[in-house]
Write the structure tokens for this entry.
Amino acid sequence: MISAENKRPLQTPSPSALRVRHTLTPFSINVEGGAELLFDGVKKHQVTLPCQPEPWDIRNLLQWIKQNLLKERPELFMQGDSVRPGILVLINDADWELMGELDYKLQDQDNVLFISTLHGG
């Protein structure tokens, strides 16, 4: 191709220079077992994650949840870059430990469920 403006060939970026933007169609995040109180009492969230250069994984999702959905006492939901012990995580009804935990790459229309087993007395 020739640029009409300066009659030089247009340079096409090499495939390695192209960046694929990763976004997902809306998917569900559900919070139960009392943990929903940390999310303004909302149990079900339909979310569409913003585009980013790398595919979304659970690690990135947890940071996004912390910044965008978690309303109070993040220490009761998260510990470091993961969920706190006592928070069960299911991805499409399967234990996240079977799916790769923090490294699981989110897919369109995944259902991620967080269930708190922590109860006060």
